[in-house]
Input
Amino acid sequence: DDYRYKALQTLTRARFYAVQDLTREKQRFANYLFLKCSGLAQDKDIINTSATTIALMERFETADELAYADLDELTAFIDEKGRNFADPAAKAKAIQVAARNSYRLPVTVNNSVNQAMAVSIATMRALEKQIKVLDKAIEQQFAIISNTLTSIPGIGKVYSAGIIAEIGDINPFQSQASVAKFPGLVWTQHQ
Output
């Protein structure tokens, strides 16, 4: 057995589980967002777990605070935290409309949601940081294994490392078809 593949498999599987955890945490955050600012969570033009939305939830304690914030200050905040919005003023107005249309929570419930949101945000950031660390480790481990998968457009180092880690050494396989059968990719012949 070549332990390079086992080492790579350990890293790619750890990354897979970290990404799953991040996805679950983003869903949890979206649920908290709906509780805190339902109009914002339901707006189709606002991404629930974007950096801007997260920054807004950290900055504004209540939906009312967001809904009635100074429009110029909100626009500046969105322009600073956002990722190249074409029209930050229009986005700020849309966010305020969504906040005004939100269900209002009692203060004690709102405080609890804010605390749970803070934990969720910290967890997402920690998981994103762990994924970056795993990506670097995967790239380092992957560099010592010769491959041609990265030459395929759309398949980067991390994904090709995952494929190679699960298949391992291809020399024992008799043909391309036997490699495809290993993960269950079998095409029936219609002739």
